[in-house]
Amino acid sequence: MTGAVELTEIWRADRVESLHLGHVVICKPGGEIVDAWGDPETVIYPRSSAKMIQALPLVESGAAEAAELGTEDLALACASHNGAAIHTERVTAWLDRLGLDDGDLRCGAHMPRDPAAAKVLTCSDEAPGQAHNNCSGKHAGFLTLTRHLGAGPEYLDLDHPVQVAVREAWEDVTGEAVHGWAVDGCSAPNFATSLHGLGRAMAFFAAARDGADTPREAAAARLRQAMAAHPELVAGEGRACTELMRAMGGGVAIKTGAEGVFVAMLPKQRLGVALKIADGATRASEAAIAAVLVRLGVLAADHPATRRFLDAPIVNCRGITTGHVRAAAALR
Amino acid sequence: MTGAVELTEIWRADRVESLHLGHVVICKPGGEIVDAWGDPETVIYPRSSAKMIQALPLVESGAAEAAELGTEDLALACASHNGAAIHTERVTAWLDRLGLDDGDLRCGAHMPRDPAAAKVLTCSDEAPGQAHNNCSGKHAGFLTLTRHLGAGPEYLDLDHPVQVAVREAWEDVTGEAVHGWAVDGCSAPNFATSLHGLGRAMAFFAAARDGADTPREAAAARLRQAMAAHPELVAGEGRACTELMRAMGGGVAIKTGAEGVFVAMLPKQRLGVALKIADGATRASEAAIAAVLVRLGVLAADHPATRRFLDAPIVNCRGITTGHVRAAAALR
Description:
2 copies of one chain form a homodimer.
Chain A: E1 5-12, E2 15-27, E3 33-37, E4 43-44, H1 51-54, H2 56-60, H3 63-66, H4 71-77, H5 85-97, H6 115-123, H7 136-149, H8 161-174, E5 181-183, E6 189-191, E7 193-194, H9 195-207, H10 215-229, H11 231-234, H12 240-247, E8 253-257, E9 261-266, E10 271-277, H13 282-295, H14 304-310, E11 311-315, E12 321-327
Antiparallel strand pairs in A: 1-2, 1-12, 2-3, 2-10, 4-7, 5-6, 8-9, 9-10, 11-12
């Protein structure tokens, strides 16, 4: 985390109340760095920002096609969703088509972020299911590949064919050997990677063409397109991934990850972006990615959704705007 | 925020995933610095960590005595409470004794943090009242002083006698002129202060004696003792203020503030502590204050509550410990 630079400021009245440091890298396919802030070689856990990498084996193996997955399912495989009905019903239907159910998932259960879904569970004293887990689409993808490979049910084990395939794809698209691994919030292995490597991977996804020569490139194109086509499935109403992808009007795919990670894939520019807030703050990663997307000309600075994240008003419970979450000048 | 040093580390597997920088100062009465990390002269908004300062005029004016406030009420005046029944019922009864009601508060309403109270409101589609606001005790104190002074109802105006008295007390105990002000989450003015000044104020509270010569010192002693006597009223079940004060077995009073502020008043040692996490993270301020309290010999390192904040396990939704929130070596 050394070498982190100021990326997001929290203003209250005329003073910076809190400050978020971090690292950003913008890459071309192959990994050439176009622009960087902080230290692009810092090693991070990409967390959920790498879900499209974890979904590559699902698609390139033919498992997705064999299971007749739609673009909605592929978007969910790359999602950290709110557990709203539009998410859980699709995941449940997907498991059903595989002849599996909620109990076959290994992501664990947590209360959905979607207020309506959480209210139903809370007020009926009902426990959330694993389909409510924000990672349930990724895990449905893991189960689909497990089925396709005829592998065992413990698909999160590091030596399970699914995770072996994920790691091979991960090291290929990042262009580096993993720097170790950790257990993620959803219990899946998450591989430590340099920010530069993650940016290189995002550039690979950005530049991936339809009808590409290699199954991996074709898979990357399909996953990127599925994310951009279904912003509401990748996160949910009000979330940065969903609102900013909507504001960019398709094409560009972006994804948040826990502990202040954000990535973007810009197909027209054939550029990949990866950023990490050193202290792990989501509010800061959202402001920083919005600034980078405006800077790269794919997000309109005057779009209401842009302002909501790039220069987000802090409004207190009497409706008074007391400050702002603001991307630092260096990114503007 | 320049000069901030590493105070809290977020570990995942064998790697520091995120890092929190900040500033800490330990002061004697009068402001002599005993120990410091980072820059003690950094200017911050103390936010809710200054509630005992904002409550000084309530007590020293005689308003608290005239209204027959108990130590529970004084603890609530210094609290950022969970809006549980033990909090809201006392605040409501207090307002009732003044012949006032929820509508006289100016803190605004937000959903209580207490799960049981939030569930009742959510499942009955009932909106929270202003008494549910975590600052409602502070505001009941402001209203009590307003009544005592025969002042107007808009007690949050900067030129209202209540806020004029708060500012005079604030500048006296911090030993410095305020560096401007901002509107807090509860709409009250919050005065920018150096961390050193806040630490000096906490040392004043720490050293304040019963039956002191001055009304201000007597008020400080009563407020500190009320906080230490009622940990459950200052925050709520599971909260750092409540659990750590319980673990210290009375005497020492501590208080959190938004955006990563924490303060402590150590009467036996006659020391005041103030800390600010530069990025505003509460998880980091809780680990850091626990480390400082252990270091100063008032909190047992092996107490379960200590470990919960000093070296807090990060447990995922399948019960797997994936990492730790850990105070940095510099504080241990």
